[in-house]
Amino acid sequence: MTGLRVRAPQVGEGDKIVPLWRNLWDLHEAWGSYPGTQDAAVYRALARRIDDESALRRGFPLLRRSGENGGHIHLIAERDGEIVGQVEGWVEANGVDPRTPITCEIRSLIVAETVRGGGVGHALLEELAAVAGTVAPRIFAVAEVLAENPFRPFYRREGYAPVGWTLRYAPVSAETPEILIGAREETARRTIQTKLHVRRARASDGFSAALLETVLAMRRRAVRDLRFDPPRTPDAAQIDALSTYLAARERLSEAAPPLDWIVEDAHGVRGQGTFALLPLEAPFLTGQRAVLGRIAFDPAGDPAILLPPLLARAAERAHAFGAKWLELCDFSAPGTPLYEAARALGATPWSSVMGKRVC
Ligand SMILES: CC(C)(COP(=O)(O)OP(=O)(O)OC[C@H]1O[C@@H](n2cnc3c(N)ncnc32)[C@H](O)[C@@H]1OP(=O)(O)O)[C@@H](O)C(=O)NCCC(=O)NCCS
């Protein structure tokens, strides 16, 4: 496309960028995501924030604090003096292994309707990869794409492949935990109710947690999700580190997630999951996202048996915190036992994470 320039936003351009953002929020809401605000004052505040950040950027797309191994990238596409697209990238390390690439999370990519299909989206992603590459030599870029987004094929076309899946359980109500447990057939229900229980993880779970982390890492690597460290054989140092970590997390109140849970039966630990609450910030309508992640089960166990009590506990917490629905993230692909166990319990496809090594 001629006359196209991709660059950092400048002070005073916030007002011109915000309509794109608003369009994106309206689209996401139409595709079943959390509702955005229609309050003009919120968008004016957003424009001011973009301008404040632009002042700090001084023409550079990457904003980072000194010593930080990451940062926030903001790029706009300009053609004939008009802003026709934007993208953000959050660059951060998700692992500690030096072989693990740094993640660049692509957010709020949008191109003005009038110029879609003309190469602007491609140009924004290219430049985003180039800027992220100044932070670290190896970058894994990811974008979360809603199942209902009709533009999903764009990422495939750009060479991205699915590396993670999220399902949604909605709505959550006071009855949901009972429904989830009751959804099992008679034999399975007896198994769950008499033998399986969910409890908070504690320091003494360090060894089990290390084994389950390996299961989780293997699942991620099997689909080439390079955001996280490769699987490792648990060793004394890792078990010790996990025990210390769990000891600290154990002290958090039930009222202050994140909460690490263990699924246990008469024979011992069979699985894990972490429940987190994430605030929804403007321009979303304010509220809470309830998320259940880091799920890993004993490979000898059946997710159809192990998942319901974990889900029931998460649904109970989600309801207690006033969340409208529960997101089940970091899942394996459709067709796998874990994914299908969640589907059988009534969870619906919500999004997939598309990933690509960009350098
Ligand atoms: C998705 C979006 C950013 C793509 O930007 P764009 O400028 O239209 O895309 P480009 O013209 O650079 O397309 C790059 C490639 O993807 C292909 N492509 C773009 N949109 C596509 C679509 N909807 N279906 C299939 N292929 C598509 C193009 O044909 C092109 O392939 P080619 O090089 O082989 O011709 C834009 O359509 C958009 O703003 N959509 C609404 C918001 C949105 O969905 N954002 C992403 C949220 S995760």
Notes on the protein architecture:
This protein is α+β, with helices and mostly antiparallel strands and 359 residues long. It has two domains: 4-159, 3-Layer(aba) Sandwich (Aminopeptidase); 167-352, 3-Layer(aba) Sandwich (Aminopeptidase). It has ten helices and 13 strands. It has helices at 14-30, 40-57, 120-132, 153-157, 176-182, 186-195, 206-222, 236-250, 303-320, 337-344; strands spanning 4-7, 62-63, 71-79, 82-92, 102-111, 139-146, 161-169, 197-200, 259-265, 268-280, 287-297, 326-331, 348-357. Strands 1, 2, 3, 4, 5, 6, 7, 8, 9, 10, 11, 12 and 13 form a 13-stranded mixed β-sheet that branches. Strand 5, helix 3 (120-132) and strand 6 (139-146) form a beta-alpha-beta unit. Helix 7 crosses helix 8. The longest helix is centred in the N-terminal third of the chain and has 18 residues, at 40-57. The protein is globular and about 70 Å long. The structure holds coenzyme A. Coenzyme A (COA) is lined by residues 24, 27, 109-111, 116-122, 143, 145, 149, 151, 153-154, 157. Residues 24, 27, 109-111, 116-122, 143, 145, 149, 151, 153-154, 157 line the site of coenzyme A.
